[in-house]
Structure formats: structure tokens, C-alpha cells
Amino acid sequence: MSETSAFLFYSQDFLLGTLTLPMDDRGKYITLLCYMHGHGRLNEEMVKQLVGDISNPLRAKFKLDENGFWYNVRLEKEVNDREKFVKSRRNNGGKGGRKKQQQSIRHCEERSNLSIEKNGDCHAPLAMTDVRGASIPPLPEHVKAKFIECGLPAIEAEYETLKFMAFYTGTNWTTSRGNKVVNWKASVTNWFLNRNKFSKNKQYKTLTEQWLE
Predict the structure, then answer these.
(1) Range of 185's domain?
(2) pTM of the predicted model, to two decimals?
(3) Is residue 146 assigned to a domain?
(4) With contact defined as beta carbons under 8 Å apart, do 207 and 140 qualify?
(5) Neighbour count for residue 155 (Cβ, 10 Å)
(6) Cys-Cys link to 209, which of 1, 120, 169, 205 (CB 3.0-4.6 A)?
(7) 195 occurs within a structural domain
(8) Are 89 and 143 in a shared domain?
């Protein structure tokens, strides 16, 4: 069972990864992901109790462990990453928090320990920030807008956004030299100027490919 009440979910990527599934299977897929997030791996009997019959395409999105329990690779990675992030924030808070010149944050306990309290409401996930105070990772729609600003048509901007987000998610938002990204807009511009070079890099999977696992 996950210790956190949320995990990162890339909505556009999920839609792309389930386009070939009928609506019934899409509903079963997200139901199983949500239940696994709260309760862990499931045996086949529990899977059938939750969603009924399973088609082969839907079954292919899950793997079986040595005990025959179902799990989703991408989901477990996101859950583990999120729990590590929360623990690091707790440890940071125990040491007195960040320096004064940095953004002040604290947990909102009523709804989620993954929220920033603003005007008394729990509504925004904690995140790294760049030198301009912008959230890292940025929202995909903001990255797409930046690619369009650079001159790409909307369709190409969508495609480059998927590759950009997959690449930097894989590097934990660090540069090729191992430094943390300090200005994601500059990184998008650099990607745009060198996109042909990035396209030849086959050492990462797109988020769509990861969800299809």
C-alpha cells in the first residue's frame, strides 16, 4: 500500500497509450491503477472481482511477479519516486526547512502532505523551482506553448513536448553534466535548436512507451 495519497499521472500520455483500447477497457485500466496505488499488487481473482473479464490488450499492460500478482511497471516507479520525494521533504523540514531566500513551503496535513498551503487551501503539489521561481517539472502544456513560441506548429510542438518531458524525467531534471535544470524555458529553447540531435538519442523511452509496459 502506498504511503502517499497521489502519484504523477500524465493525462495526455495516458490518452495516447490507450487510444487502441475500447472505452470499457480504459475504465478498467484506470480502475486497476488506482486500486493498485492504494492496495499494492493484486492476484487475478481480485482483478476479476474489481473489473470483470480482462481482454488480452488490457492484460498486456500488466506484468506478473514471482507469486502471480499483477503490477504495472510505470505505476510502481511513479509511486516509489513520489514516496522518496515526500521523505526528502520531511527530512528537510526536520532540519529547519530551506534558507530564507528560497521559496518557503510547508505541508498541509488535512488533505495531503504533498500540497503547498496558500490562502488556507490545499491545492498545489510541492515541486522544485528554477531560478525564476517556475515549477520543475513544468506542465506539459507550458512546454508545448514554449515550443510553439519557438516557431513549431502545434502538432510538432506536441510531439517534441512528449520527447522533452520523457528525456528530462529520465534524467531527473538534470543536464548532461549532472547539474539540476535551473531554467526549463532555456532548456526548451536549446532542445528546439538542437532537436534533430536529440531525436537521434535512442537511450530513453517516451512516456507513452513507458505507460504501454
Answers:
(1) 136-212
(2) 0.43
(3) yes
(4) no
(5) 8
(6) 205
(7) yes
(8) no
Show the CA angle centred on residue 131, arms to residues 112 and 158, nearest 5°. 75
In terms of DSSP H, where are the helices of the chain?
A: 11-17, 23-39, 44-51, 56-59, 73-94, 140-150, 154-170, 184-193, 195-199, 207-212
Largest CA distance in the chain: 55
Q: What percent of the chain has pLDDT over 70?
A: 69
Please report whether residue 178 resides in a domain.
Answer: yes
Any idea what the Cα angle at residue 141 is, between residues 138 and 144, rounded to 5°?
95
Of the residues 29, 61, 94, the one at which a domain ends: 94
Number of domains in the chain: 2
Q: pLDDT by residue (tens digit) across 144-177?
A: 999 999 998 888 888 888 888 888 888 889 888 8
More confident residue, 194 or 90: 194
Residue 132 has pLDDT above 70, yes or no: no
